[in-house]
Amino acid sequence: MDSASRPQLAPHRYFTREEWASLRADTPLTLDESDLARLRSLNDPISIDEVVSIYLPLSRLLNLYVAATQRLYKATRTFLGTSDGKTPFIIGIGGSVAVGKSTTARVLRALLQRWPDTPKVELVTTDGFLYPNAVLQREGLMERKGFPESYDLPALLAFLSDIKAGSPRVTAPLYSHLVYDIVPSERVTIDAPDILIVEGLNVLQTPRLPRDGKAVPFVSDFFDFSIYIDADEIDIHRWYVARFERLRATAFRDPSSYFHRYALIPEDEALAIAERLWSRINLANLRENILPTRPRADLILSKGANHLIEQVALRRL
Prior knowledge:
Layout: E1 12-16, H1 17-21, H2 33-39, H3 48-80, E2 89-95, H4 101-113, E3 121-125, H5 133-138, H6 153-164, E4 170-176, E5 181-190, E6 195-199, E7 225-230, H7 233-248, H8 267-290, E8 299-303, E9 309-315
Helix pairs in contact: 3-4, 7-8
């Protein structure tokens, strides 16, 4: 649907793929096919054309936003009479499992790192702030893994607060998708970036506000810009099952994989398990927690059945 057919009161302005692509201006293409091969996630067929049509205009927009926000931070420091260090620009990326968040985050990071002024760009996922499996099992939350209650929210908020304050060498827990758990005694260090990308299922989630007006921080309170990767439920379902099948033939074959057992059973049994995992966990999380946060994003990238972005919605200022 083009922008002319959208109601004027809508908080977002809508662009077709062609309209958005025209906003690239002279933003240079700094990635090639070999770069994309390293950046794309399993079962996410991103192409150079997708980078040119969608991600180069987005890179240009973010370049403008970062410059404007840094001027605002500088003005605030002047007003307060402080001379503390730089304030990182934080980008949040949310959306369902299997929708392509990780690829979007990695492609954006690569593009932003290659701006002429070569900013320092870091990327973290909220997976590292999941409670360890031992805690989830004790609390009966293993089948709620990825739901808001399965994250150590105070630790995530403290991490973002330290980043936003410009603290050097802020650490976060390390998560392994192979063993499906937090890696004990290992940390990821984020050292004073210019830009931090935070990717996760529920980054735009808002808790219920207390009646007494007590301040309750949200993860998104620390974002300067937020992106939601959107697609029809039926397509996400299909991508999830296809990815599960690919993983059975690759990562699940590793004996150290948490899901190794799924590589050893007949295909029909494995697919039945994939369908059950989708409906009981991932679909439920999408409907209850993830999809309701879509309107909160500054930018919504809507994918078609072929995994390509067909429409872009940018929040009006």
